Amino acid sequence: MGDQRGAVMRVLFVVAVLFLGGCGASLPTAERIWGKPVPKAAPEPPPVPCVADSGFATFADCVLKKSEGKEVTPAERAFLSQIRSIREDYLAGSLTDVKAHAALDMAYLNTIEKANEAERDRAAMRPRGGGGGMAPFSCHRFGNSTYCY
Protein backbone atom coordinates (compact mmCIF):
# COMPACT_ATOMS: atom_id res chain seq x y z
CA MET A 1 0.00 0.00 0.00
CA GLY A 2 2.93 2.31 0.65
CA ASP A 3 4.16 1.86 -2.95
CA GLN A 4 0.77 2.79 -4.38
CA ARG A 5 0.60 5.87 -2.23
CA GLY A 6 4.10 6.90 -3.28
CA ALA A 7 3.20 6.40 -6.97
CA VAL A 8 0.05 8.52 -6.59
CA MET A 9 2.05 11.26 -4.89
CA ARG A 10 4.64 11.23 -7.71
CA VAL A 11 1.91 11.49 -10.35
CA LEU A 12 0.28 14.38 -8.50
CA PHE A 13 3.68 16.07 -8.16
CA VAL A 14 4.36 15.73 -11.92
CA VAL A 15 0.88 17.05 -12.81
CA ALA A 16 1.32 19.98 -10.41
CA VAL A 17 4.76 20.83 -11.87
CA LEU A 18 3.44 20.64 -15.44
CA PHE A 19 0.40 22.76 -14.61
CA LEU A 20 2.39 25.40 -12.74
CA GLY A 21 5.02 25.35 -15.47
CA GLY A 22 2.43 26.31 -18.07
CA CYS A 23 2.04 23.02 -19.90
CA GLY A 24 -1.47 22.43 -18.64
CA ALA A 25 -2.40 25.98 -17.68
CA SER A 26 -4.40 26.73 -20.80
CA LEU A 27 -6.81 24.74 -22.84
CA PRO A 28 -6.19 24.36 -26.57
CA THR A 29 -7.36 27.38 -28.50
CA ALA A 30 -8.26 27.71 -32.16
CA GLU A 31 -5.03 29.64 -32.67
CA ARG A 32 -2.96 26.82 -31.18
CA ILE A 33 -4.85 24.16 -33.15
CA TRP A 34 -4.84 25.81 -36.61
CA GLY A 35 -1.70 27.88 -36.16
CA LYS A 36 -3.29 31.22 -37.03
CA PRO A 37 -5.35 33.69 -35.07
CA VAL A 38 -9.10 33.45 -35.42
CA PRO A 39 -10.67 36.83 -36.13
CA LYS A 40 -13.03 38.04 -33.45
CA ALA A 41 -16.41 39.50 -34.34
CA ALA A 42 -16.37 43.28 -34.35
CA PRO A 43 -18.46 44.80 -31.59
CA GLU A 44 -21.82 46.04 -32.78
CA PRO A 45 -21.83 49.83 -33.06
CA PRO A 46 -24.28 51.69 -30.86
CA PRO A 47 -27.56 52.58 -32.57
CA VAL A 48 -27.68 55.97 -34.23
CA PRO A 49 -30.72 57.94 -33.12
CA CYS A 50 -33.12 59.41 -35.67
CA VAL A 51 -32.90 63.20 -35.49
CA ALA A 52 -36.14 65.12 -36.00
CA ASP A 53 -34.24 68.31 -36.95
CA SER A 54 -32.92 66.66 -40.12
CA GLY A 55 -36.12 67.24 -42.10
CA PHE A 56 -39.27 65.17 -42.10
CA ALA A 57 -38.45 62.81 -44.99
CA THR A 58 -35.03 61.92 -43.56
CA PHE A 59 -36.50 61.42 -40.11
CA ALA A 60 -39.40 59.27 -41.41
CA ASP A 61 -37.03 57.16 -43.52
CA CYS A 62 -34.79 56.63 -40.48
CA VAL A 63 -37.72 55.52 -38.27
CA LEU A 64 -39.08 53.20 -40.97
CA LYS A 65 -35.65 51.69 -41.63
CA LYS A 66 -35.05 51.01 -37.93
CA SER A 67 -38.37 49.19 -37.68
CA GLU A 68 -37.63 46.80 -40.55
CA GLY A 69 -37.34 43.17 -39.49
CA LYS A 70 -38.41 43.83 -35.90
CA GLU A 71 -41.47 42.47 -34.18
CA VAL A 72 -43.90 45.31 -33.62
CA THR A 73 -47.05 45.63 -31.56
CA PRO A 74 -50.36 46.50 -33.24
CA ALA A 75 -49.99 50.10 -31.99
CA GLU A 76 -46.50 50.33 -33.47
CA ARG A 77 -47.76 48.86 -36.74
CA ALA A 78 -50.49 51.52 -36.89
CA PHE A 79 -47.95 54.24 -36.11
CA LEU A 80 -45.61 53.06 -38.87
CA SER A 81 -48.53 53.00 -41.34
CA GLN A 82 -49.36 56.57 -40.42
CA ILE A 83 -45.71 57.58 -40.86
CA ARG A 84 -45.79 56.09 -44.38
CA SER A 85 -49.00 57.98 -45.18
CA ILE A 86 -47.68 61.30 -43.83
CA ARG A 87 -44.39 60.77 -45.71
CA GLU A 88 -46.28 60.15 -48.94
CA ASP A 89 -48.27 63.39 -48.50
CA TYR A 90 -45.09 65.27 -47.59
CA LEU A 91 -43.21 64.04 -50.66
CA ALA A 92 -46.22 64.90 -52.85
CA GLY A 93 -45.98 68.47 -51.56
CA SER A 94 -49.37 68.59 -49.82
CA LEU A 95 -47.73 68.97 -46.37
CA THR A 96 -45.01 71.35 -45.22
CA ASP A 97 -42.22 70.14 -42.98
CA VAL A 98 -43.86 71.70 -39.92
CA LYS A 99 -47.28 70.20 -40.70
CA ALA A 100 -45.72 66.79 -41.34
CA HIS A 101 -44.02 66.89 -37.94
CA ALA A 102 -47.29 67.97 -36.31
CA ALA A 103 -49.14 65.11 -38.04
CA LEU A 104 -46.42 62.73 -36.84
CA ASP A 105 -46.86 63.95 -33.25
CA MET A 106 -50.62 63.39 -33.47
CA ALA A 107 -50.06 59.93 -34.98
CA TYR A 108 -47.81 59.08 -32.03
CA LEU A 109 -50.38 60.31 -29.50
CA ASN A 110 -53.21 58.40 -31.22
CA THR A 111 -51.32 55.08 -31.46
CA ILE A 112 -48.31 54.52 -29.19
CA GLU A 113 -49.37 56.85 -26.38
CA LYS A 114 -52.94 55.47 -26.32
CA ALA A 115 -51.55 51.92 -26.09
CA ASN A 116 -49.23 53.00 -23.24
CA GLU A 117 -52.15 54.68 -21.50
CA ALA A 118 -54.30 51.55 -21.83
CA GLU A 119 -51.47 49.46 -20.36
CA ARG A 120 -51.14 51.86 -17.42
CA ASP A 121 -54.89 51.56 -16.85
CA ARG A 122 -54.69 47.75 -16.95
CA ALA A 123 -51.75 47.84 -14.52
CA ALA A 124 -53.76 50.05 -12.16
CA MET A 125 -56.54 47.45 -12.12
CA ARG A 126 -54.23 44.59 -11.10
CA PRO A 127 -54.05 43.75 -7.38
CA ARG A 128 -50.94 45.12 -5.71
CA GLY A 129 -48.67 43.47 -3.19
CA GLY A 130 -50.40 40.11 -3.27
CA GLY A 131 -52.77 41.25 -0.53
CA GLY A 132 -55.65 39.38 -2.10
CA GLY A 133 -57.78 42.51 -2.22
CA MET A 134 -60.23 43.03 -5.03
CA ALA A 135 -58.85 44.88 -8.03
CA PRO A 136 -60.60 48.00 -9.28
CA PHE A 137 -63.08 47.11 -12.00
CA SER A 138 -63.33 50.38 -13.92
CA CYS A 139 -60.93 53.22 -14.75
CA HIS A 140 -61.84 56.64 -16.15
CA ARG A 141 -59.65 59.50 -17.28
CA PHE A 142 -60.51 63.10 -16.43
CA GLY A 143 -57.91 65.48 -17.83
CA ASN A 144 -54.52 64.34 -16.59
CA SER A 145 -55.94 62.08 -13.85
CA THR A 146 -57.06 58.44 -13.94
CA TYR A 147 -59.65 57.27 -11.44
CA CYS A 148 -60.22 53.57 -10.86
CA TYR A 149 -63.18 52.16 -8.89
Layout of helices and strands:
Elements: H1 2-21, H2 30-34, H3 56-67, H4 74-92, H5 97-125, E1 139-142, E2 145-148
Antiparallel strand pairs: 1-2
Structure description:
With 149 residues, the protein is mostly helical. The chain is built from five helices and two strands; from the N terminus they run H-H-H-H-H-E-E. It has a two-stranded antiparallel ribbon. It is elongated.
Output the helix-strand order. HHHHHEE
Radius of gyration: 32 Å
Counted beta strands: 2
Number of helices: 5
State the low-pLDDT regions, or none: none
Residue-averaged pLDDT: 75
Strands side by side in the biggest sheet:
1-2
The N- and C-terminal alpha carbons lie at a distance of 82 Å
User: What is the strand content?
Assistant: 5-15%
Keywords:
mainly alpha; 2 strands; 149 residues; two-stranded antiparallel sheet; 5 helices
In short:
With 149 residues, the chain is mainly alpha-helical. 57% of the residues lie in helices and 5% in strands.
